[in-house]
Amino acid sequence: MVTATREGDAATRPPAPRNAEGPVRQAVAVGLGALVGLLPLHGVHAPLVRGLGRVTGLPPALLGLGPRSTPAMLIPVLLLAQVEIGAWMRHGAPHLLASGAATTVTPTGVLMDLIAGALFSGGLLGLAAGIQTFITLRHRTGDPVFDALAADAGRRYGDGSMTLWQFANGKLRFDPVYRDALRSLALPHHGTLVDVGCSQGLMLALLAAARAAPPEAEPVPRFQTLVGIELRPRVAAQARRALGAAAIILEADVTATPMPRADAVLVFDVLHLLSADAQRRFVDALFAAIRPGGTLIVRRPMGAGSASRSSAAPSPEGVVRRRDQANAPLPDARRMARPVRRVRVRNQRRQRSCAWPARQRAVRAAPSLSGRARALC
Fold it and tell me: Which residues have a Cβ under 8 Å from the Cβ of 263 and sit 6 or more positions away?
């Protein structure tokens, strides 16, 4: 990862806020919700979840993940599968394979098979979902402030499906780009931020959590306006639902939409989808939209089977050029003239860091970035 680090740090930092629900209780809620979602009580799942929440004290949003994750069109198939699983458990063979099934099947027997199959399948799914949730939420990055903000951001996706909630919480904790962008890549602490290709809005949710942190908490970026741009309608709707009034989500093609003025722009895993010429035009448009002194942070894959690399550069002078294994280099950095305090290269997979001398300009590092990084590590 390439970082342009600027001066200015805080000395004394208070501890991060605690989470309202621990990983064990959240894992139990998700697992119990998965069991409820597979019970053949379709139509009464919502009041059942509310009742369980009152009795157990578990968060209703997480209890409802399971019931909300079952598509209505799959309910008949699910009921049939549960009947067959129950028959296999009770009689040693499913109805479709049992000899003489037409004469032995009774309504009471089918109901008992359905209950047995639902409890068995729901129990397995609940156990798997609970274990996965516990492993995800127990993960720590070593930065308690980021861990607390990631937990707050992940809660925004509790009103969606279990798949979306698991994805959001796992991605925030295990993908290092979110922590690096928030804590290491010299984001300004005010103004407007635009996330280009924001997907489900995970980075925006993280920044919204940072903005809502207590004033006495450790200094983190607190943008007044958060804007996300996403092309896919379904994914944009997921981001809009999770963020609500905390961010503006635009459903648009970033290559054909005028960029709003911003103090910081994030472009994660987007540039490699564009041709070399489209990349140059797109990045030029980004620089035109960024206010003087703002920041552009870019991440894209380095090739199949390789780690990703991110670059942070002051604008509008240019962006650090990398000779990596992706389909085309970013626009040349020869126009970059502003000195930076330090240029740090970090491989996100190996977590190795190096630094050039403090007075070196980023433009000098750009033409041979990968070679210099290997030499200095």
Answer: 188, 190, 191, 192, 193, 223, 290, 291, 293, 294, 295
Measured CA to CA, the distance from residue 346 to residue 351 in angstroms comes to 6
Global pTM?
Answer: 0.71
Q: What is the distance between the alpha carbons of residues 220 and 159, in angstroms, rounded to a whole number?
A: 26
What does the block give as tokens for 287? 């620089």
Query: CA 299 to CA 305: how far, in whole Å?
Result: 15
Return all residues near 217 (Cβ < 8 A) that are at least 6 apart.
14, 16, 17, 145
Q: pLDDT tens digits for 33-52?
A: 999 999 998 888 889 999 99
Average pLDDT over residues 74-98: 86
For 19, residues 6+ apart whose C-beta sits below 8 A from its C-beta are: 148, 151, 152
pLDDT digits (tens, 9 = 90+) for 131-143: 999 999 998 888 8
Environment class of 100 (CB within 10 Å of its CB; exposed 0-12, middle 13-18, buried 19+): exposed
pLDDT of amino acid 98:
59
